């Protein structure tokens, strides 16, 4: 996974939004890393799952919200990387700006990674609402699900 904040910065006017500009952080020595799920009331209500990987928050929009128990699978569409500071962001992104709407922290905590590669991520989350083993699997493009950024998110105990 490549760490970059170029797309994040390109989409925002920091003189108009309260979102952090951020930087890439080096946290390779930490076993526990942070995660956050933000409820985002934009054009459509969705939840943004963000995992600290490679010094940034790798991010996925989860339209129906993250699963809290086994047996529920959710589409998660990978979006641009966000800076680590975004984990504390709550507020209103102004009308006319990318992602305009209200952002609030829905859950936050730490995680330990079991496996991270370009097509599969397995993490053990320790949050207020999301606890346990979660898996993200990258989906292949299909006639039904177009695009290269679709993942499947589900909870799976060992």
Please work out how many helical segments DSSP would assign: 1
Order of helices and strands: HEEEEEEEEE
Percent helix: under 10%
Cα radius of gyration in angstroms: 15 Å
Mean pLDDT: 90
Distance between the first and last residues' Cα = 25 Å
- Strand portion: over 45%
Class derived from helix and strand content: mainly beta
Q: What's this entry about, in short?
A:
3% of the residues lie in helices and 48% in strands. With 158 residues, the protein is mainly β.
Provide a descriptive summary of the structure in words.
The protein contains one helix and nine strands, in the order H-E-E-E-E-E-E-E-E-E. It is mainly beta and 158 residues long. The protein has one domain. Strand 6 and strand 7 form a beta hairpin. It is globular, with a radius of gyration of 15 Å. The model has no long low-confidence stretch (mean pLDDT 90).
How are the elements arranged and paired?
Layout: H1 6-10, E1 33-41, E2 45-53, E3 56-62, E4 73-82, E5 91-93, E6 101-116, E7 120-127, E8 131-138, E9 150-155
Antiparallel strand pairs: 1-2, 1-6, 2-3, 3-4, 4-9, 5-6, 6-7, 7-8, 8-9
Comma- or semicolon-separated keywords:
9 strands; mainly beta; 158 residues; 3% helix; eight-stranded antiparallel barrel
């Amino acid at each position: 996974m490549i760490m970059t904040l170029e797309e994040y910065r390109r989409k925002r006017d920091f003189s108009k939004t309260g979102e952090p500009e951020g930087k890439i952080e080096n946290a390779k020595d930490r076993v526990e890393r942070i995660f956050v799920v933000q409820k985002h009331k934009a054009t459509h209500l969705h939840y943004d799952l963000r995992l600290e990987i490679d010094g940034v928050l790798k991010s996925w929009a989860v339209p129906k919200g993250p699963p809290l128990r086994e047996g529920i699978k959710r589409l998660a569409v990978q979006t641009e990387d966000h800076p680590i500071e975004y984990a504390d962001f709550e507020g209103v992104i102004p009308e006319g700006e990318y992602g305009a709407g209200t952002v609030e922290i829905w859950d936050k905590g730490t995680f330990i990674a079991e496996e991270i590669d370009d097509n599969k991520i397995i993490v053990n989350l320790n949050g207020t609402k999301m606890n346990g083993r979660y898996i993200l699997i990258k989906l292949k493009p299909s006639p039904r699900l177009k695009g290269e950024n679709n993942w499947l998110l589900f909870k799976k105990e060992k």
